[in-house]
Design goal:
It is a single chain. Helix content is 58%, strand content 12%. It is of the alpha+beta class and 680 residues long. Helix 10 (222-250) runs antiparallel to helix 11 and helix 13 crosses helix 15. The longest helix is centred in the middle third of the chain and has 64 residues, at 256-319.
């Protein structure tokens, strides 16, 4: 519907443009004395200068109201023009009816010689009536206080009056485009004046496409489509058929009476054909709608069946004796059945979404769960094995058989979430322990037997072993490239270091998210904590020819910090600054006291961070689009957790192209109660 309304508004502007062309040509004809432009034909009435002025002002008023919503004062200008146009029509009609001579007729003609008329330069009665009605329509359009029905009724009246005049020209009937019942000594409406008024009528109607009767033509319904077809046919058929029949009569094929008959039959036939086509189209749409309705019934039936199956499946899960849990694609728990809640000691009203997957494992199993279970699920789609859950109330470990899997859409393989089915194997584990005890006793017995056999076979075994070792040594190729072995060893060590760093980050992430992260603060001087770390990282900045400026005032008060953890924060911030600052860049590390805290800042003159990315820079695993695959996206998140565990806060200020500044605050000891276990 919005699309149709916009098309109507564009059509209104087009009609205004076309309506302004005819008075423009007529004005040129009057200025340069070109009768073809003023009268179209020597036998037809000319467009009077007053009509040219009125038509121009009408077009301008319609255009001004189109911008009135953005510039309200233009509506008042359009209202003034409407008053002038209406007054022009009313005064001219008054001159005809009451015999006045107000002197407005020859104003634009001057002493120019015109047709031998009783009132040179005066508008025709039909033209004057149109201007009076158009003025009212412009008032309704510009002020918006008059009902839309007034605007549309006036536009239709003007259009009908003009169509009658134009039709008179088609059939050479002077009585149609004049006022024959009243001898006013006036000419009829000029043919191009009538065309301009028809276009103005259309512009007025299409200027309010969503109001009044025009709302039907912009309705996105079958009735709206039928109305549009009929309106287009009604607007296009009469003038088109009129011109064609006029050409036939001019060629001498038939007389005026035959022309009228042909015009009537052709117009009615065209309109009937259009109406029939619209009805046929409506029928097709209705059949499609019925087909869609039947399809919706079938879809609803399938939906009801699916819902019933879903209820059955939900009942099975709710009544299962196993732990059954679901999580979203990001691993956030979303559902846990009653048996699962009972297994881990969670009340029925506990909000599962406030927990994490790792929290369900006993503390000594969480590293294994993060490094093996979750990784296998993400990489292979499933993991099955035995592990330990924890009881949320008692903290006891619960041995379980754990089956994790990724849930995918079978149609497009899209990940829908994660699922787990877990069974308490405490009884089985007790049986296994008993079996293990028995197995150990059996093993001790077997060991005793083997020792006896070893003593017995020792003298025979040594010679055989010696021969086997000699043969194996002769077959084994010797590796003499010690540098290559060392290089392999270095690569293995670096890989191990990276994996350990990632595992440590994941462990910190788990603790921070689960609320178990802690620090061990002691009173320290910041310079003693930060200076050694900064100096150790200068080798990285020197490799990129970067300058690190350090400003740690000696009078800074001491703070309570976990030196290891705060060094971890500074290593991350300074490492990022070195990493993302171009060569020969500048990095500043400063500290200052502000009220009840000390603020530490790391600033650089790198590329900066966009406003959008600054809102997410401390989110878990977030990386800016241009730095994808650089790091893990955990460093700033962990730094935030560490700072908040100290009772401080961390933030970033940045401007694209000018650099970034990361700052964090540490409360002063005297304003913070002593604590040895700060939870983020």
């Amino acid at each position: 519907m919005v699309h149709l309304a916009n098309r109507s508004m564009r059509l209104s502007k087009l009609f205004c443009l076309l309506a302004g062309i005819f008075p423009l040509l007529a004005a040129i004809g009057w200025i340069f004395d070109i009768p073809l432009l003023t009268s179209v034909h020597p036998s037809l009435p000319p467009m009077q200068p007053n009509a040219i002025l009125g038509l121009f002002l009408t077009v301008i008023a319609i255009v001004l109201t189109d911008y009135g919503s953005r510039f309200p004062r233009l509506n008042y200008v359009a209202s003034v023009i409407a008053a002038f146009v209406c007054l022009l029509g009313v005064l001219t009609l008054g001159e005809y009816i009451f015999g006045w001579d107000l002197g407005i007729d020859p104003i634009l003609i001057g002493n120019r010689t015109v047709l031998p008329l009783e009132y040179p330069g005066r508008l025709s009665p039909q033209t004057a009536a149109n201007f009076a009605v158009v003025g009212v329509a412009l008032f309704a359009l510009s002020l918006g206080r008059l009902p839309t029905a007034w605007l549309q009724a006036c536009a239709l009246a003007v259009g009908a009056n003009s169509v009658i005049a134009a039709t008179g020209y088609f059939f050479s009937v002077n009585e149609v485009y004049g006022f024959p019942p009243i001898d006013l000594g006036a000419i009829g409406m000029a043919v191009h004046t009538a065309i301009s008024f028809i276009l103005i009528s259309g512009a007025l109607l299409f200027s309010r496409p969503n109001e009044g009767m025009m709302s039907l033509t912009t309705s996105n319904t079958l009735s709206g489509a039928m109305a549009r077809r009929i309106v287009v046919a009604a607007m296009a058929a009469p003038p088109t058929i009129g011109v064609l029949t006029l050409l036939g009569r001019s060629a001498g094929w038939y007389d005026v009476d035959a022309q009228a008959s042909i015009f009537l039959v052709a117009t009615v036939g065209f309109l009937l054909r259009t109406t029939w086509q619209a009805a046929r189209h409506s029928e097709q749409q209705e059949l499609q709608a019925r087909s869609a309705l039947r399809a919706s019934y079938l879809a609803n039936a399938r939906l009801r069946t699916a819902l019933d199956e879903r209820r059955i499946f939900a009942a099975l899960i709710e009544n299962s004796s196993d732990f059954i849990g679901l999580a979203d694609p990001n691993g956030k728990p979303t559902y846990l059945n009653p048996a699962g809640r009972r297994m881990v000691g969670l009340p029925a009203d506990f909000n599962i979404e406030n927990s994490t997957m790792l929290e369900y494992y006993s503390e000594d199993q969480r590293a294994f769960a993060a490094a093996v279970i979750l990784k296998s699920m993400l990489e292979q789609g499933h993991w099955t094995g035995e592990t330990y859950f924890r009881h949320w109330k008692t903290g006891a470990s619960i041995p379980v058989s754990d089956d994790h899997f990724i849930i995918r859409d079978p149609e497009n393989d899209r990940v829908l979430g994660m699922g787990t089915i877990t069974r308490d194997i405490s009884d089985l584990r007790r049986v296994q322990l008993e079996n293990a005890r028995l197995f150990d006793e059996a093993q001790r017995a077997i060991t005793l037997r083997d020792n006896v056999l070893t003593i017995v076979s020792h003298d025979l075994k040594n010679p055989v072993t010696t021969l086997a070792l000699i043969g194996h040594a002769l077959r084994r190729p010797e590796i003499s490239d010690r540098k290559k072995l060392t290089d392999f060893a270095d690569k293995i060590q670096r890989s191990v270091d990276r994996m350990l760093a990632l595992l440590n980050d994941l462990l910190d992430l788990s603790k921070i998210q689960s609320g178990t992260f802690s620090v061990a603060p002691e009173v320290e001087r910041l310079s003693d904590v930060l200076s050694p770390l900064i100096e150790s990282m200068r080798m990285l900045s020197d490799a990129k020819h970067q300058a690190i400026e350090l400003n740690l005032p000696p009078d800074l008060p001491a703070v309570r910090v976990d030196a290891h953890r705060i060094s971890q924060v500074m290593a991350n911030l300074l490492g990022n600054a070195i990493k993302f600052t171009p060569e020969r860049g500048r990095i500043r590390v400063t500290a200052r006291q502000a009220a009840s805290a000390v603020i530490v800042s790391v600033s650089d003159n790198g590329n900066g961070i966009s406003n959008e990315d600054m809102q997410k820079v401390f989110d878990w695993f977030f990386q800016a689009q241009e730095y994808k695959r650089v790091g893990t996206g955990l460093g700033l998140s962990i730094a935030k957790g560490i700072v908040e565990a100290h009772g401080g806060s961390i933030w970033v200020e940045s401007q694209l192209g000018k650099g970034s500044s990361f700052s964090f605050s540490l409360p002063l000891p005297e304003l913070k109660t002593e604590r040895t276990d700060n939870v983020a």
